Amino acid sequence: MPALIVLPSYNERQNIIGLIDALLALGPALCVCVVDDSSPDGTGDLVREAAGERSNWSGRVHLISRSCKDGRGGAVREGLAWGRAQGRFDAYVEMDCDFSHAPGAVPEGLALLSAGNAVVLGVRYPGGTIVGWPLGRRTFSFLANTLARVLIDPSIADYTNGFRFYSPAAIDLLLSRQQRHKGYIYLSETLSLFLREGLRLAAFPIRFQNRERGVSNTSIREVGAAMRGILSIAWSHRFGGP
User: Fold this and answer.
1) What percent of the chain has pLDDT over 90?
2) Considering only CA atoms, which of 232, 223, 137 is closest in space to residue 179?
3) Burial degree of 236 (CB within 10 A; 0-12, 13-18, 19+)
4) For residue 51, what are the CA distances in angstroms to 28, 54, 67, 69?
């Protein structure tokens, strides 16, 4: 099926070209939209140059350059909005730019979407594998997801992983609602929305590889914001809200 893969990018010069090549190699129906938040390492410029040099990228790679860093959630949302406006995609994918999410897992997610699910999650647990994560990241992920399962809905095990597949109907619903949280916590916000609206969700386990090149963009400030955000999302989920 024609699918658009949205890559939120910030300082991903070491990974972005190889990732795009790997994704396009999966099949001619796949296109990529890179949303670059003015990476100081020139990620956007590198994509622009590569697009002019690689004939196989023509018509399949789109770059959105934003004037400032505005968080992963906003970047993904803008890429999805652009893709939906094109009116030619039957599926939408979001994934990280650092090879944490294996390009080879994309066909499995698309197949589950084709089976009638509105949203498909590539999850680290249960059943997935995490490679190379330091203890601090494991602890944060455990606490954040445990809190989300208890306060929002126990049917979802992994609220914070950004490897997801959406139907056009799911994108229309997402874009019809105002974004309340920035950064990675927007992943939990959108799941709360899909659960409240009764969309059909599916999940499959993945191998999550901690980035081997580049530096993680997750900061202590974002960790604190994420924990506060889960509490806010849970309140709206339980008691009503936008």
Assistant:
1) 71
2) 232
3) middle
4) 16, 6, 20, 23
User: Buried b vs exposed e over 167-195: b needs ≥16 C-beta within 10 Å?
Assistant: beebbebbeeeebbbbbbbbbbbbbbbbb
Q: 151: which 2 tokens?
A: 């306060």
Q: Are 47 and 17 in contact (CB under 8 A)?
A: yes
List the domain range (segments joined by +) for residue 20.
Answer: 3-239
Question: DSSP 3-state assignment of 85?
Answer: helix
Residues counted in the chain: 242
The DSSP call for residue 101 is B
How far is it between the farthest Cα atoms of the chain? 53
If you ran DSSP here, which 8-state letter would residue 123 be given? E
- pLDDT for residue 81 is more than 80: yes
- The 10s digit of each residue's pLDDT in 37-61 is 989 999 999 999 999 999 999 999 9
Phi-psi region for residue 16, left (φ > 0), alpha (ψ -120 to 50) or beta? alpha
CB 123 within 8 A of CB 158: yes
Instruction: Count how many domains the chain has.
Output: 1
pLDDT of residue 214: 47
pTM of the prediction? 0.92
CA distances from 141 to 103, 204, 220, 223 (A): 22, 18, 13, 10
